[in-house]
Amino acid sequence: MEKRSILHMLDPMPNNSPFDVNMALDAGFDVLIPYSNVKLDGVHGLTQDAIFSRGPNGVKRTGLFIGGRDIGLAIDMLSAAEQAMVPPFEISVFADPSGAFTTAAALVGCVEKELKTKHNLDLKDAKALVFGGTGPVGIATGVIASLEGADTVLVDHLSAETANDLAKEYNRRFKSNLKGACASSYEQKVELIADADIIFCTAKAGIQVISSKILSHAKALKVAGDVNAVPPTGIEGIKLNDFGKPMEYAPNASGVGALAVGNVKYQLQHLLLASMLTTDKPLFLDFRNAFAKAREIL
């Protein structure tokens, strides 16, 4: 009799995400076991407890999912889990803290497609701004875009120091080439977007970051993507389902709305979770795998 599939869901936060629980169940896992307040130094022991109890065949029906909100910690936990494997006792591990990796991969993938389709340009040909760039989705978006060659700036609403510190931290971690900036005023936003080819908006839900008046200064803008589905949208004039429509207040650019991004994000997370149940060898999945799969989907 085939063993039931089990997903152990490790989270450094007080609770696991109900979104991730729903996604894992819908992807085909039979049993979901949540663990909250997990520390980095506890990952090794939890991983080995999971791998040694089911035999070499049972481990193929066992997986780890890493959540939380800190993408650096999630990567460290993924690495700790991988180092705890003892062949042939190896299981697949998927890190997607706050859904940041799959959301960012979907956002960059959608924007990349529009940039290529409408302007015959690659990310390496573009200057990109990430508003809300110091949150989990913003950082992951910036890292993906930078690794693909875009001249990428993480934009914080309050502090250039915060943006620059995070850019330096993740440049060291992933060998990206991020920069930091602050845009707390109308004038600062206008100055930043004047020569931007791409705007990614990953700011807090329900806050409009880029108004129509600011967009009137975005003369070089080609594509803008917004992940905010809570009114008002982060970029004025981009509708939730837009995918490549001319922007109302920047008609030379096309917009990608939150539900268009969300549709790809949903497919990504489902496919990556499902792949853990069908692989013959263990998978260790993060934003890089998510972005490669987003390109396939798109």
Note down, in words, how this protein is organized.
This protein is of the alpha/beta class. It folds into 2 domains: 6-95, Methylene-tetrahydromethanopterin dehydrogenase, N-terminal domain (Rossmann fold); 100-261, 3-Layer(aba) Sandwich (Rossmann fold). 42% of the residues lie in helices and 19% in strands. The strands form 2 sheets. A 7-stranded mixed sheet has the order 7-6-5-8-9-11-10, with helices on both faces. Strands 2-1-3-4-12 form a 5-stranded parallel sheet, sandwiched between helices. The longest helix has 21 residues, at 258-278.
Portion of residues in helices?
A: 40-55%
The assigned CATH architecture of the largest domain is: 3-Layer(aba) Sandwich
Mean pLDDT: 96
What is the fold-level CATH name, i.e. the topology of the largest domain? Rossmann fold
Largest sheet features = 7 strands, mixed
- Coarse structural class: alpha/beta
- The low-confidence runs, each spanning 5 or more residues with pLDDT under 50, are none
* Number of helical stretches of at least 4 residues: 11
Number of strands: 12
Distance between the termini: 38 Å
Task: Kindly provide the radius of gyration, computed on alpha-carbon positions and rounded to a whole number of angstroms.
Answer: 20 Å
Q: List the secondary-structure elements in sequence, H or E.
A: EHEHHEHEHEHEHEHEHEEEHEH
Highest-level CATH class of the largest domain: Alpha Beta
CATH superfamily of the largest domain: NAD(P)-binding Rossmann-like Domain
Number of domains: 2
What percent of residues are in strands?
A: 15-25%
The shape, in one word, is elongated
What's the arrangement of strands in the largest beta sheet? 7-6-5-8-9-11-10
